[in-house]
Amino acid sequence: MMELRGICREYEVGGETVHALDNVDLTIRPGEYVSIMGPSGSGKSTLLNVLGLLDRPTAGSYALQGEDVSKLDDDALAAKRQKHIGFIFQFFHLIPRLTALENVELPLVLAGAAPRERRERATQVLESLGLGPRMHHRPDQLSGGERQRVAIGRAIIMQPSFLLADEPTGNLDSKSGGEIMQIVEDLHHKGIALLIVTHDPLIGGRAHRHLTLRDGKIVKDEGSDTA
Amino acid sequence: MKALDTTRLSLQALRRYPLRTSMLLLAIAIGVAAVVMLTAVGEGARRYVTGQFASLGTNLLIVLPGKSDTAGGGGIEGLLIGETARELTLEDTIAVGRLGRVRQVTPVVVGAGTVSSRARVRDITVIGTSEPMAAIQHWTIELGRFLPPGDLDVATPVCVLGYTVAHELYDTESPLGQWLRIGDSRCRVVGMLTKQGLAGGFKVDETVILPVANAQQIFNTSAVFRILVEATSRDSIKAAKSDIIALIKTRHAGTEDVTVVTQDALVSTFDQIFGMITAGLAAIAAISLIVAGVLIMNVMLVAVSQRTAEIGLLKAVGARHRQIIALFLTEAACLSLLGAVVGLAIGTAGSWVLTLMFPVLDFSAPPWASAAAVGVAIASGLLFGILPARRAANLDPVLALMKH
């Protein structure tokens, strides 16, 4: 469960204060499938970053799985991310010198898992994503869709409760994009909560709950179980 | 994160930029090699010089005329100045030889002389001395015997040839029993020294050695150039020195006009001088390691900005502050360690080549220098790695991820 109460996020840009998020209240339940849409600069990426603990709100409170995380320091936030949250990015953010397998293993390496255990788990995840034969390839030897699948593998290797995707298909052709959507929706069916930031109404429309942001405020919240 | 994984990730990052990495390795290697080779040269020189003085003889004191009034009671200055006040004489020598802490004593008279035998003529150094000289200086006899024992003031017409002189005058023929003309006098060759090489900076192989009274006649002098004294033991050197000074003072009507140089003082003076030169060379070379450290910092800062997105990603997947610092510091440490190892190899090989080229000197860096070079290299890598590593760890993950 993610519970935001009165969340504000302000930036100073050229001496002017920008309200990227303006007094946002939002609850994400376990296993939900939520799209976040809105024009550029509406604050949708900021919202995702705050939900993913990458960004800190300037005001308001945030409870993740019942625990207040708005006062935690950087390292404690990193620990929470490691445990609860997986990220998928538009530009994949794979480490170019590591193989697909090593990229997927990375969160386990940081968590201090034993080599044998992490190899087994990463192999398993990559095989479930159809990348078994390509797992010793480096990112520059993989297609865009394959790279994003590796990134998904890395996002779910720690078995998080929430999968946060920022324009996951933004850098892919429609066929690969469709495949990626299929994969993350399969993960959602297995119980993970899925949050997708997108410009694309076709992608956004596939979610069960649609949030629309404008000027840092949630102006529309459709399909919510509570709505 | 395990230390092994940190190291592996760092090494993978270094492998990714082979040119950059090898340039940095080179910079560090040059620094370490410079320290190793310069200290090797300094040490080689130090060992050579102290070795030379040690070969002068053991428990040796050298009495020279004139008083050098410098602090420390006479060091090498006396040797260099050696101005004459009142001359030393054979009687002084005999008197010194009677002192309790003196085992043996010998006078030395030195001059240039023309030596001829049959048709061959040589201009060489002529040494007038006495029988204990061979023992004091550790000279060994190849053929015949050394100067015969006897009263110092008796001129016996005999001489001993240095190795080179003997061969120049007589080729392979035995010089024993040959008659040699030195200036206006004649003497018979009774012995030949074995090859001595350079002892105390003096080419004994190219000299003719005569009884001191003969040399004094040839050079028309009653003075003695030096008196060499061997003390009874190492511990008595100091006491022997003051005994000698006191004795000569009474003999010279109360004027303290001699300088006594002990070999110990000479050796330790040179030891100190060369030790300081070596340390100075090492310090200069160490500066290049600091420069290499600055290079590391520079390149690591570039690496941090090149890998900004990667650092953002690491944070997104749960990397802690310390882990990111550890990754970048390990990268810097691996660079400096590898560079140091390469530098040690180059430095050791270089010292070895120098030893091959100049076999008379033994060039090898003292262990402290090699250890210090590696230590300074790693310390400088770590020190200058801190800033880039902290910069990486302090990146805002959101901003970092926006770079791609």
Provide keyphrases for this structure.
heterodimer, A: 227 residues, alpha/beta, Rossmann fold, six-stranded mixed sheet, four-stranded antiparallel sheet, 7 helices, B: 404 residues, alpha+beta, 2 domains, six-stranded mixed β-barrel, two-stranded antiparallel sheet, 13 helices, 12 strands, 18% strand
Describe this structure in words.
By secondary structure, chain A is α/β, with parallel strands linked by helices. Chain A has a single domain (30-57, 72-222), classed as P-loop containing nucleotide triphosphate hydrolases (Rossmann fold, 3-Layer(aba) Sandwich), CATH 3.40.50.300. Chain A is 34% helix and 28% strand. Chain A contains seven helices and ten strands. In chain A, the strands form two sheets. In chain A, strands 6-7-8-3-9-10 form a six-stranded mixed sheet, sandwiched between helices. In chain A, helix 3 (100-110) packs across helix 4, helix 3 runs parallel beside helix 5 and helix 5 (144-156) runs parallel beside helix 6. Chain A is globular, with a radius of gyration of 17 Å. The mean pLDDT of chain A is 92. In chain B, the strands form two sheets. In chain B, strands 2-3-10-5-7-6 form a six-stranded mixed beta barrel. Chain B is built from 13 helices and twelve strands. Chain B has 404 residues and is α+β, with helices and mostly antiparallel strands. Chain B has helices at 3-16, 18-54, 77-81, 90-97, 133-137, 163-170, 212-218, 237-251, 263-306, 308-316, 321-357, 367-393, 397-402; strands at residues 60-65, 102-117, 120-129, 141-144, 158-161, 179-182, 185-193, 198-199, 202-203, 207-211, 226-231, 258-262. In chain B, helix 2 packs antiparallel against helix 12, helix 9 crosses helix 11 and helix 9 packs parallel to helix 12 (367-393). Chain B has two domains: 3-52 and 269-402, no CATH class; 86-256, no CATH class. Chain B is elongated. At the A-B interface, helix 2 and helix 3 of A face helix 1, helix 10, helix 11 and helix 13 of B.
